[in-house]
């Protein structure tokens, strides 16, 4: 089992798919990493040599911010907005949609389960 950036990559999957298990790496970045490391698209993680795994690990460490560092940066950005008291920060603080979506209906993912108001019915 390959361990890259603190994540166990599944051995049965192709390398491009396995790299997506790392937070911060999507399909395009995974494809780019494989291209730079010289690994063909059809290779499985279990078929990688130790040198290839080290090459992938070094390339990710040098060029990308992933896992804990990325999560920390995102949370610090949100904390900065809330401390400033700007509009986006207030929306984060109230756990409402930040990017201008409507909240009269919808927005259930962000707001949570609907709560019935007692005494509303006539």
From TrEMBL:
The answer, when asked if Ribosomal protein is one of the entry's keywords, is: yes
Q: Which GO terms describe its biological process?
A: translation
A Gene Ontology cellular component where this protein is annotated is: cytosol
**Superkingdom per UniProt:** Bacteria
Q: Which UniProt keywords apply?
A: Ribonucleoprotein, Ribosomal protein, RNA-binding, rRNA-binding, tRNA-binding
Q: Which family does it belong to?
A: Belongs to the universal ribosomal protein uS13 family.
Stated role:
Located at the top of the head of the 30S subunit, it contacts several helices of the 16S rRNA. In the 70S ribosome it contacts the 23S rRNA (bridge B1a) and protein L5 of the 50S subunit (bridge B1b), connecting the 2 subunits; these bridges are implicated in subunit movement. Contacts the tRNAs in the A and P-sites.
Q: PANTHER family from the entry? A: 30S RIBOSOMAL PROTEIN S13/40S RIBOSOMAL PROTEIN S18, SMALL RIBOSOMAL SUBUNIT PROTEIN US13M
Q: By what name is this protein known?
A: Small ribosomal subunit protein uS13
Organism of derivation? Caedimonas varicaedens
Its lineage reads:
Bacteria, Pseudomonadati, Pseudomonadota, Alphaproteobacteria, Holosporales
Tell me the gene name: rpsM
């Amino acid at each position: 089992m390959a361990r890259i950036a603190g994540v166990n990559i599944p051995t049965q999957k192709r390398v491009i798919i396995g790299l997506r298990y790392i937070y911060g790496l999507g399909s395009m970045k995974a494809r780019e990493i494989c291209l730079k490391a010289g690994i063909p698209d059809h290779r499985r993680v279990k078929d990688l040599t130790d040198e290839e795994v080290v090459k992938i690990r070094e390339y990710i460490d040098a060029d990308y911010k992933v896992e804990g560092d990325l999560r920390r940066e995102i949370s610090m950005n949100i904390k900065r907005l809330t401390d400033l008291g700007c509009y986006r920060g207030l929306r984060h603080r109230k756990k409402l949609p930040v990017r201008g979506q409507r909240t009269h209906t919808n927005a259930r993912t962000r707001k949570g389960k609907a709560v019935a108001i007692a005494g509303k019915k006539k």
